[in-house]
Amino acid sequence: MKTLRAIACLSLVLAAPGAFAADKVCKLEIASTDQMSYDKKELAVAADCTSVELTLKHTGKLAVAQMGHNWVLTKTADAQPVANDGLTAGVANDHIKKGDTRVIAHTKLIGGGQSTSVTFPTSALKKGEAYTFFCSFPGHIALMKGTLKFG
Ligand code: CO
């Protein structure tokens, strides 16, 4: 294990520094509650971010099957159709239809007291495009949705 880690570190050092110089991971945080809400309606990703690490916290107490929350990102026009198709997908599939290519990024579904995160490249986003984030747990998109802006 130690050796593996050493090799991993070494290969990072040996890789051309230029390959990493422009990388910028931008961190976003959003919290969710037992009242079926997010604490933010808008998220912004600066133009120079090469990837986004989104952390979702569930500050409530209810179980995932009762008040599950995730964070799903799609183009705004795709949000409601993706939520509709996720209705019957079940908690085990994070209420997202398997292989749904309209989903740009998503976290898993979590219950009260839990947190989760997802990292995705901004190459999946276009400047000027409207993106919507929402919770795909059945019915939650009505209250749990917001806008993500890039650039
Ligand atoms: Co939810």
Q: How would a crystallographer describe the biggest sheet?
A: 5 strands, mixed
| CATH topology assignment | Immunoglobulin-like
Q: Give the ordered list of helices and strands.
A: HHEEEHEHEEEE
CATH 2nd-level architecture = Sandwich
Number of helices: 4
Stretches where pLDDT is under 50 for at least 5 consecutive residues are none
Strand order of the largest sheet: 2-8-7-4-5
CATH class: Mainly Beta
First-last Cα distance? 41 Å
Backbone CA Rg: 17 Å
Percent strand equals: 25-35%
Fourth CATH level, the homologous superfamily: Cupredoxins -  blue copper proteins
Beta strands, count = 8
Q: What sort of overall outline do the alpha carbons produce when their principal axes are compared?
A: globular
Decide which structural class fits the backbone: alpha/beta
Which ligands does the model contain, each kind named once? cobalt (II) ion
Which bin fits the share of residues in helices?
10-25%
- Report the mean per-residue pLDDT as an integer: 91
List the main descriptive attributes of the protein structure presented here.
28% strand; globular; 4 helices; alpha/beta; three-stranded mixed sheet; Immunoglobulin-like; five-stranded mixed sheet; binds cobalt (II) ion; 151 residues
Q: How does this structure look, described?
A:
The protein is an alpha/beta fold. The protein has a single domain (23-150), classed as Cupredoxins -  blue copper proteins (Immunoglobulin-like, Sandwich). The chain is 21% helix and 28% strand. The strands form 2 sheets. Strands 2-8-7-4-5 form a 5-stranded mixed beta sheet. A 3-stranded mixed beta sheet has the order 1-3-6, with no helix packed on it. The longest helix has 13 residues, at 2-14. The N and C termini lie far apart (41 Å). Cobalt (II) ion (CO) binds at residues 68-69, 135, 137, 140, 144.
